[in-house]
Amino acid sequence: MLKQIEPNKQILCVLEDLETFTSYKESETQLLNVLDGINQMDNVVYLGTTNYPEQLKERILNRP
Q1: pLDDT for 41-62, tens place per residue?
Q2: Using CA atoms, how far apart are residues 64 and 23, in angstroms rounded to an integer?
Q3: Which of 38, 41, 46, 61 is geometrically suited to a Cys-Cys bond with 33, CB 3.0 to 4.6 A?
């Protein structure tokens, strides 16, 4: 919604506790769609955090 109001605004999106996003197949798919750019937005940086990196799958850990 912010991109509609200010399309050139730079945004930092922090995704805390990534392991909760990847614990369900549907949530993981939605997360990958955002990261892979199905609806790509310019000037957005995604930063993911977790206390349990061992719970993350390789396809999340090895993002380009």
Answers
A1: 788 888 889 999 898 888 888 8
A2: 21
A3: 38
Quote the CA–CA distance of 50 and 18 in Å, as a whole number.
5
- Spatial distance between the Cα atoms of 18 and 52, rounded to a whole number of angstroms: 9
Instruction: Say which amino acid occupies 40.
Output: Q
Q: How far is CA 12 from the centre of its chain?
A: 11
And the tokens for 32?
């990958």
Query: How many Cβ atoms are within 10 Å of 22's Cβ, its own excluded?
Result: 21
Specify the pTM: 0.71
* Structure confidence by residue, pLDDT tens digits, 17-50: 988 877 778 888 888 888 887 777 788 888 889 9
